[in-house]
Design brief:
Layout (H helix, E strand, L loop, with lengths): L1 H6 L4 E6 L3 E7 L5 E8 L3 E3 L2 E3 L2 H23 L8 E6 L5 E3 L18 H11 L8 H10 L10 E3 L1 H10 L3 E3 H4 L5 E2 L4 E2 L1 H10 L9 H4 L2 E3 L10 H7 L15 E2 H8 L7 E6 L3 E6 L12 E4 L5 E7 L4 H16 L6 H12 L9 E4 L16 E4 L7 H26 L6 E5 L9 H9 L3 E4 L5 H15 L6 H9 L5 E4 L3 H16 L1 H10 L1
Parallel strand pairs: 1-6, 6-13, 9-12, 14-20, 20-21
Antiparallel strand pairs: 1-2, 2-3, 4-5, 7-8, 10-11, 14-15, 15-17, 16-17, 18-19, 21-22
Helix pairs in contact: 3-4, 10-15, 11-12, 12-13, 13-14, 13-17, 14-17
Length: 528
């Protein structure tokens, strides 16, 4: 009985801080969802940098946890006093720098910032390894190049997940998947790449800093390792009502890419997943290293430390969401009150009748810069020719295709240039909540079968809850891949769609138009 499971602490709690929503998911021994909570939040553009305040982090986490506790109370008539294990996840990358007293030195610089171009060029050349704009080491070296004064005092760097975990446990650690978005990983050793660490220290040697890079980075932990316990202070941070008890074991904090892989059972070679939200990215587990460096492909790891090629696009569904809000506003203006989910369902279903090639319409979803296509800043853009097919179905289909276009560019490098084979691609995130729509377009875009399961809308919060469960419930010697296959997904129902040839041809035509018109997007950046 669920109430007994909760009362007995036979649960796992996952909390993920996403770009627009903080979500908590409580699962039972069968990994099914027992209760959820959420909190909406938004980044701010301050001094030309995307950021969130640490105050908003804790306001959001506490509100999210309170909503979950209320769900438990309302559904089961219980106060949530403990859980069996806990995990924290968050959007990857970015820059959180603290001094020796634990004080934040500069506002949190998120993954969305693309001001790190000079650092990216210099580090990629020095390391002979692609360093993306959003990685923590790129932000650190850009601060070095800009001679930022806070570097005299820096004592510790971490990610958002690492920060929250640190405050809850006192442990400055990070799961290997999230750590791989800070600095390149030696997957054989399971540590930061020592040769690249030495190269970086040489690059900054003439700056006179009294730190070395290895002293700044969090300690790496692998899935299944215990990464601390919830302290009394941490329990009060999470639950100011003092109902939640301390002593809960925590799994290593992970990034949203890693939890997305777990949530879709895509941690073994020849599997991959696509996560679609504010950003959109694909993770493909590699059978062997890539033949050369590609700026479109990041090399990260699974939460178990296996090598992954990542295609990360800064811009995902945000522009599509903006258009949906506009249609909802119009509906309200004419007296047709409908909820957001109905708006999305209606628009997505309508898109199925649209022209597969966009009918001459063209859209760019760039709210922020997009490194894969060389855009330093973003300007959402919609363009049509006088004779284009301009109807609701084609308009929405165009925006859905635009949300996948940059991902396709990166996947072409992986599939065509590197000949990486994929048996299937799993998809999750809100974009796939309407059954069979965005999933169908993704299959066409990457010419690969795409599967969606019933956890698709729960996403990474459920994934980090599963990692927390793995911490306490794994059998001796049981790998993460085996645990997922045998304990979590053995009876899972999946909807799999194969690429439709007509959809594939239409998307190819759309992409040709998309690539040809990129100078229009660049002109919008330069002149607006």
């Amino acid at each position: 009985m669920a109430a007994n499971v909760i009362a007995g602490g036979q649960t796992a709690l996952g909390i993920e801080l996403g770009s627009t929503r903080i979500k908590a998911v409580l699962i039972g021994p069968d990994h099914q969802v027992l209760a959820t909570g959420s909190h909406a939040w938004e980044n701010q553009f301050v001094d030309r940098l995307w950021t969130y305040s640490l105050g908003s982090v804790w306001t959001g986490v506490q509100d999210c946890y309170a909503a979950l506790a209320a769900d438990v109370r309302d559904t089961y008539g219980l106060e949530l006093t403990t859980v069996g294990s806990l995990g924290i996840s968050a959007m990857m990358h970015g820059y959180l720098a603290f001094d020796a007293d634990g004080e934040l030195l500069v506002p949190f610089r998120t993954w969305r910032n693309t001001n790190t171009g000079p650092a990216v060029d210099a580090l990629s050349a020095a390391f002979e390894h692609n360093i993306p704009h959003r990685w923590s080491i790129a932000h650190l070296y850009q601060a070095v190049l800009d001679s930022e004064p806070h570097l005299e005092s820096v004592a510790h760097l971490t990610t958002l997940a690492g920060y929250v975990h640190w405050q809850l446990t006192g442990e400055q650690v990070l799961g290997v998947g999230d750590a791989s978005g800070m600095f390149p990983i030696d997957t054989e050793a399971g540590t930061y790449d020592a040769a690249m660490i030495a190269t970086f220290d040489t690059l900054v040697a003439d700056r006179g800093y009294d730190w070395r890079l290895a002293d700044l980075l969090p300690t790496i932990r692998i899935a299944g390792d215990q990464a601390g316990t919830l302290t009394q202070t941490g329990a009060r941070l999470l639950d100011p009502t003092a109902t939640l008890q301390a002593g809960v074991p925590l799994c290593p904090p992970e990034g949203d890419a890693g939890t997305g892989m777990v949530a879709t059972n895509a941690v073994a070679p020849r599997t991959g997943n696509v996560s679609a939200g504010t950003s959109i990215f694909a993770m493909v587990v590699l059978e062997h290293p890539l033949s050369r460096v590609h700026h479109e492909l990041d090399l990260v790891t699974t939460p178990a430390g296996d090598l992954v090629a990542m295609v990360h696009c800064n811009n995902g569904a945000s522009e599509l969401n903006a258009w949906a809000r506009l249609f909802a506003e119009f509906a309200t203006a004419i007296g047709a009150e409908i909820d957001a989910s109905t708006v999305f369902e209606t628009l997505f279903r309508a898109s199925l009748d649209g022209a597969s090639d966009g009918g001459g319409l063209l859209a760019y979803n760039y709210l922020s810069g997009e490194p894969i296509t060389g855009l330093a800043e973003g300007r959402p853009l919609f363009v049509r020719t006088p004779d284009s097919r301009f109807d609701l179905a084609t308009f929405i289909r165009t925006h859905l295709c635009a949300a996948l276009a940059t991902l396709r560019i990166g996947m072409d490098v992986l599939q065509s240039d590197e000949h990486v084979a994929l048996d299937t691609m799993f998809a999750h995130g809100g974009l796939f909540a309407t059954e069979g729509v965005a999933q169908r377009y993704l299959a066409a875009a990457i010419d690969t079968p795409v599967s969606v399961g019933d956890t698709a809308s729960e996403g990474g919060a459920w994934g980090i809850a599963v990692l927390a469960a793995y911490l306490t419930r794994k059998l001796p010697g049981q790998t993460l891949a085996d645990y997922l296959a045998d304990e979590v997904f053995s009876g899972a129902e999946l909807l799999t769609l194969d690429p439709d040839p007509a959809d594939r041809a239409g998307f190819d035509t759309f992409l040709q138009r998309y690539l040809a018109a990129l100078p229009v997007q660049q002109a919008a950046v330069e002149h607006t």
